[in-house]
Structures are given as C-alpha cells and as structure tokens.
Write a structure and sequence with these properties.
about 450 residues; alpha+beta; Transposase Inhibitor Protein From Tn5, Chain A, domain 1; 18 helices; about 45% helix
C-alpha cells in the first residue's frame, strides 16, 4: 500500500525571506531629493532637538552617534530602503544624510547603537509630531468623503482601530541564531483618524500572538469623548462596549453570525434593510445595542453600534462609515509594504522598536505630502494614491535636475495622468456605500 504524501507545513516566515533576499540584491538607491529632505527637516528635526535634554537625562553621552544623528540615519535607511547596516555604514561616510554631515563610523558601532539607543526616544518624537501634522491637515482645504464629512460634523472625531502582526526576524546572528524557526517581530495596534488618515496613538507588543482584546484599555483611554470608532469583530467585548456607552464614546463593528440577542424594538425594516434595537450580554455587560442588517449581493451583512438614536446616526451612515474602516488596512499596507516594515535589519527588540517608530514617522510625513497634493488638485484624500506619490518622487528628482520642476507638490499635481497620482476607477469597484444603502432604505 502506497503511503500518502505528507502535507507540507506552512512556513511561519511568510513572504519575509523573499523580501529579505530582494532587498540585499538591490543597488544603492539615489539620495533623498532636496524637497523631501526639507520636509523631513521641517517636521521631524525640531522635535528631535527638543528631545536632546531628555536624551541627556537618561545618562546617555553626547557621542558621535547621538539621538539627532541616529534619527537622520534611521529615517534615511527606511526611506531609501537600504539593504542593511553594512550598506548604511558606507553611505554615511560619503554623503550628507538629512541634517547630518558625513561621519566616520564602523559597522559595529552603528549596529551596537541600534540595539542600545532607547527606542522610547523615537516614540517621543513620533508622539510630538502627530499633533503638528494634525494641525497642518486642519489648515488645508479639500473635500472629504460624504460620510466622513457628515461624521465629523456630528461627532468629536471618527476613528478606526485595528492590529497587525509584524513579519519574521532574521536569524543570522545573536540570540535568535539557535532558534528552530524565524520568530515574528511582534504586533502593533493603531488608532487612526479617518479624517486625516493620521494615527493618534500606536502601540507595540513584543508578543506576536497578543490578541486585539489586550489593547482595549489603551484604545478606550485614547478615544475622545463623543467620538465614533470603527472596529472589526476581533474586538467584540460586551463589557468594553458597556464602558464605552458610559463614557459617551460610540462604536460600529460587524456582528458575529452566532450573536445571541433578544429583540427590543424594530426601527426600520424592508426586504433589504433591517434596523433593530436588541439586548445582549449578561450581568454588568447586559445592555441595549443597535443591530443594522443589509442585503448585498445575496448576503446579509450585520453591524452593531451603541448609538441607539437612528436620527443621530441614520441607518445608511452606520454601513457607510464602517466601510471606511478599511482605511486603517491601507495604512498598514503603506507602512509594511511601501515603507518596508516587512523587513527588519536586526533581531534585537530595541532595534525592532526603533524601526517601528521611525517607519510611522515617515508614514506621517508621506501622508502630509499626499494631503498637500490633494489640496492642490481640490480632490478628496481618498482619490490620491499614496503609493504613487511615494514612487513619483523619483521622477520629480529627475525633473528638478533638468530644471523642469522646482516644487514637488506642484509637479505632482501637474503630472497626475503621467504619474498615476489620481486613482483610476474600475468597473469592478464597489458602489459608493452611502448612496447605495440610502437607495435600499428608500426602496
């Protein structure tokens, strides 16, 4: 009797090995163009200088690789997607890196600094940068998606919260060398402002298996009063939902298929839409929620919210706003795929944290640039491709060297068709959620 072939076990490394290999084979990329340097210097450099006194209070010496220099090196390494510390060591000895002049430094010294420079310093810079970027967003004028504009007029803010597992670490050296598998780098969770597309808080957990529920206390503390937050089913927790209602904080999430509830009242119902008040939970978690259901392409989609007033939050907006939750997935896509947080230069936890916070710093700068392009084109931010803005900086650099361009925002706005800055519409695109659900409620 022939033996059945063994089922091949899925690799825990995911696609990381392919990314790592590809990064090591790339040629050295061109220096960051001057306008991007100016934007990084304008936004990040002053805040970094403001952390120097705290740097000294930690007992750290003002050596060559101090906070200001290391911030420049790490940001440059991520932005240009330099393959590793060895490559970076060669570059910093020959080039001016952002605000740092060329320095003679060994690979060992640079590697050691990545593992010992307190990652908290980078987090403090990020935390101080976020309100600055938020203020710049508020000062710009550009249209918003209808449901986001409506929510911002009725709530103190509209947010999405979600977590994402980081990819595998390299096992070439250090304590990871003797492990049987490549361990994952950890897990991060973000609270994203859906209006500005900027994070308001980011948390990192070394345990890659950490459940989303672990971050509930932090999320609840960071969420403003009278705010509206989108979360996926992984955050379903009736006790925390009750806490949100007591604190005048609202949520919208997907309802599980096995949700046990008791019908309290029907607010609206037809063949394709149902909007009802229900009782869920037991004990302290016993509460009234609102269950909204719509029929889309032959399947019922169910949503839960603790906003019980259908006049304050109409049925159509419950669905349309939840569909905007995908913006946080877009943010993770930019951070991990475009800015390279799927590749880690070092397996040390401190170096991982440094890279996480520095990558989000660059995300904020990229969002700020993309928003400026949206304003120049008088288009909603959602109409602009963040990825193509990032990739088009190469063409701006070439145009500037030829004397054909001077300002990056103007150049990108004037060459949208060539560069693919404005997202193309496809026949397979989903309908506009707000108009679609409103048509169902009218019918």
């Amino acid at each position: 009797m022939s033996q059945e072939p063994e089922t091949r076990k899925k690799s825990t490394v995911r696609h990381t090995r392919a990314i790592q290999y590809a990064r090591t084979k790339r040629p050295v990329s061109a220096p960051t163009n001057e306008q991007v340097k100016e934007r990084l210097t304008e936004l990040v450099h002053p805040i970094t200088l403001g952390q120097v006194s705290y740097f000294h209070s930690l007992g750290l010496r003002a050596r060559t690789l101090n906070l200001v220099v290391m911030m420049a090196f790490v940001l440059e390494m991520i932005w240009r997607q330099i393959s590793g510390v060895c490559e970076l060591t060669r570059i910093v000895q020959e080039e001016t890196i952002l605000w740092s002049s060329p320095v003679k430094v060994s690979q060992q010294a640079l590697s050691e600094r990545l593992t010992t420079m307190p990652a908290e310093l980078f987090l403090r810079v990020l935390t101080n940068l976020l309100p600055v970027a938020q203020l710049r967003w508020q000062e710009r004028q550009r249209p918003q998606p209808a449901e986001i504009a409506w929510a911002l007029a009725h709530y103190s803010g509209v947010y999405a919260a979600d977590g994402s597992t980081l990819d595998a670490l390299i096992r070439k050296i250090g304590l990871l060398q003797d492990q049987a598998t490549n361990p994952l780098a950890g897990r991060m969770t973000a609270l994203l402002d859906l209006g500005s597309r900027l994070p308001t808080q980011i948390w990192y957990e070394e345990d890659a298996q950490a459940h989303d529920q672990r971050f509930w206390p932090d999320i609840l503390k960071a969420l403003p009063v009278n705010a509206l937050m989108m979360i996926d089913m992984g955050y379903t927790n009736f006790y925390m939902f009750a806490q949100m209602s007591q604190q005048n904080k609202r949520f919208i999430t997907r309802a599980k298929s096995n949700l046990a509830f008791e019908l309290a009242d029907t607010l609206f119902e037809n063949t394709k839409v149902r909007d009802r008040l229900i009782w869920v939970g037991t004990g302290e978690a016993h509460q009234q929620l609102r269950l909204v259901e719509i029929l889309y392409r032959g399947k019922w989609f169910r949503y839960l919210t603790n906003e019980l007033d259908a006049e304050r939050l109409p049925t159509a907006y419950v669905v349309a706003l939840y569909w905007q939750r995908w913006r946080i997935e877009d943010a993770y896509n930019i951070v991990k795929r475009i800015l390279g947080l799927a590749y880690f230069w070092c397996g040390a936890q401190n170096a991982v944290r440094l890279q996480v916070w520095a990558t989000w710093l660059l995300y904020v700068v990229l969002i700020d640039l993309t928003d400026a392009v949206a304003e120049a084109l008088h288009l909603p931010f959602t109409a602009i491709s963040i990825e193509m803005v990032y990739r088009s900086l190469y063409f701006f650099t070439q145009a500037r060297q030829r004397g054909a361009a001077t300002d990056v925002v103007t150049y990108l706005a004037q060459n949208t068709k060539l560069l693919g800055i404005v997202k193309r519409k496809h026949k397979s695109d989903k309908p506009e959620p707000l108009a679609f659900v409103q048509s169902l409620t009218v019918s």
